[in-house]
Amino acid sequence: MGKIDKGIDFLLDLNIRHSSTYMDLALERRRYRGEHPTEIAALKCMDGRLNLPVMTQTTVGIIQPFRNLGGKFELGWPFFQASLDQWVQYSISRGRHCMVFVTYHYARGDKHRGCRGFNYDTQQARDTAINLKDQFDRVYGKGAVIPIVCGIETDLEALILHGEDSDQSVDLSDVHETSEFELVEFLRLLYSTIPEQIIRDLLPLVLGNIRHVAEIRASNRAIEDSEHKEWVLGVGRGFDWLHLINTAFIVGPFDPNLSFAIETAAKLLKGNIDEGRVDSTNGIVLLTSAAYRDTGGPEHNLAKEKAYFLSQFAQKIIQKDVPDLLPYLQILTGCTDLNTRKFEVLERHSDTLTSRV
Ligand SMILES: [Zn+2]
Hints:
Largest sheet: 6 strands, mixed
CATH class of the largest domain: Alpha Beta
Bound molecules: zinc ion
CATH topology of the largest domain: Beta-carbonic Anhydrase, Chain A
Low-confidence stretches: 1-5
Number of domains: 2
Distance between the termini: 18 Å
Order of helices and strands: HHEHEHEHEEEHHEEHEHEEH
Mean pLDDT: 90
Number of helices: 10
Radius of gyration: 20 Å
């Protein structure tokens, strides 16, 4: 106890603080939605550095994240297409446009700070994102859902916007002293066929990122802050509250090869211990979350069952494929209420897995 509890206690405290902020911002979100109604989703790598609300200076809860290893998604995946289409139908029922950021990531200063999900191959990561965008265009016919390919450059936390012709792109860290008017004109050129409303709703994110990059530059932060120091393996959904840099690898439940994504994340965590980037005495936390919106009914109960199942599933994979991680592994299982972002603890083991089996 004591020191080893720090990891889980830290996470629960983080959730309480985030949930409180999230609820405090309910009015702000409503005001923002009134002005910028487009529903925005982001398909992202599970890498903990990719915090789009921070990078775009946008209120939490506006951008709906979908996270997976390498940001690899495929509209043929049964569970992914069901989740995504549910989001699209919800948006359409409210008469809103849908914009999806299809992202890849890299670091301009060093290839090895890029995406491990792609073995640091940025070209391949970008091509995969472009293919996914094309898949969206085929499925939704450039109508109900507008996909935008977007690179996330983590050294300066700058967005790289790719135009409708994906070969054309602009690095927002290169944009200085531009008026809002010029920027709108520029976005219209980059996205000549997308609805005007989406341009208007994309604009605040672009302006936010330009401001954010200026702040990162001014802060002159040490580059090691961008290196991998994750100590949490998050499995499931509802992890908005865990958007803390260098903390967690998040594996969504979308990929039919979920076991491979869990194995990869577990290996990366073991690597962080072996290479001394994390203090292993605090342990590695397997954090499983299922999300729900309707409280007190079957949806909530199903979320609990899902959380228990996913945690057991992940533990079995780690036992089988990355057993060296077991001596460090602590367990935190629960579900997240999407109305409040509050995490409800169902199961907690601060002692390591080997001492329980
Ligand atoms: Zn990545």
